[in-house]
Amino acid sequence: AGYCLVATAEKDSMRLIAVVTGSKSPDDRTDAASALLNYGFRFFENKILVDPLTIYAEAKVWKGEDENISLVTNKEFFQTIPKGSFKNIRSNIEIFGPIIAPIDTNQPIGKLTLTLDQDILVDTPLFSNKAIKKDSIWVKSKIPPFLYFKKAWHRFCLLYTFDGCDDPLTVSLCGCRVIKKKNKLTSHIPM
Fold first, then answer.
1. How many C-beta atoms surround the C-beta of residue 97 within 10 A?
2. Cα diameter, the chain
3. Backbone phi, psi, residue 113, to 5°
4. For a disulfide at 64, which of 16, 101, 159, 163, Cβ 3.0-4.6 Å?
């Protein structure tokens, strides 16, 4: 097997391990380990590829209190990559179907994939950066609730008002004034 060595070194927060086997002498073994470590430090670097504090996408939310959510990851990804290749990393974001509230922060909403020269570096789920509650019908429609009841009462008045009806209670509740001509109801006009 010859002379063997497992060596490690750290530089600029990057730790490398060199494994040398079958060397003919202790000096050859040391030189080979040193050359491997120098090669690694010269041509490679550690980069943070994915940061949980970074917003990677925005997505539309249906039936929620908020109309949009920000998509983030839940963990950080470090990768050792060739020096200068960071600018060549391509990202692809996939959002899973229509996003319908309620949404939990632990519910995967999409997926982030980072590739370098057809090699997948990171493939991680994306999550909402905050919980989204299901919206009520009143807030979602942006119409105050009393308008729904007023409209319903108005329809009731139109259906059940008959000739000669000039009941002030009916007139004031439906929010319409009754126009009479020759003691006959002709129309309801909104007030």
1. 7
2. 122
3. -125, 125
4. 101
Give the H or E element holding residue 178.
Answer: strand 176-181
Q: Residue 54's CB: how many other CB atoms inside 10 A?
A: 12
88-101 pLDDT, tens per residue? 999 898 888 788 88
Q: For the CA atoms of 19, 25, 28, 29, what is the dihedral angle to 10 degrees?
A: 20
Kindly give the pairing relationship between strand 57-62 and strand 99-100.
parallel
Distance between CA atoms of residues 45 and 82, nearest Å: 6
Q: Which tens digit of pLDDT belongs to each residue from 36-51? A: 999 999 999 999 999 9
State residue 49 phi and psi, 5-degree precision: -90, -35
